[in-house]
Specification:
By secondary structure, the chain is an all-alpha fold. It is 74% helix and 0% strand. The protein has helices at residues 10-21, 28-63, 66-86, 91-99. Helix 2 packs across helix 3 and helix 3 packs antiparallel against helix 4 (91-99).
Length: 106
């Protein structure tokens, strides 16, 4: 495996060492590997979000009037909050959001 030498700011180096000293990781390399793995997963999630949600929304704005696109987006948003309301963990927050009179979702 090719080696790579990096320099971290003092606060980051201290955080890496603290993770190892706390027993959360066996080595400093494991801390960096895990952090990079999480960064790559986040990048992939953002890319997927842009491709699957933002792109189609932009396309809809190009193809339809802004009012039509906003109505479609609002419908998706309402469906998402209603789905969250069915989940006990988010029920109260989502139900309150959907039921606010200014939302128009009643």
């Amino acid at each position: 495996m090719p080696e790579l030498s990096i320099t971290l700011p003092n606060d980051m180096a201290s955080a890496v060492r603290a993770k190892v000293e706390a027993g959360e990781y066996a080595t400093e390399s494991e801390v960096i590997n895990d952090g990079l793995r999480m960064l790559l997963e986040r990048d992939q999630a953002v890319e997927s979000w842009l491709h699957n949600q933002i792109g189609p929304t932009c396309d809809s704005l190009k193809e339809n009037s802004p009012a039509q696109a906003l109505a479609a987006g609002r419908t998706k948003l309402e469906a998402g909050y209603k789905a969250m309301a069915a989940d006990e963990e988010y029920e109260t927050e989502a139900r309150e959001w959907v039921q606010r009179p200014d939302r128009g979702f009643q």
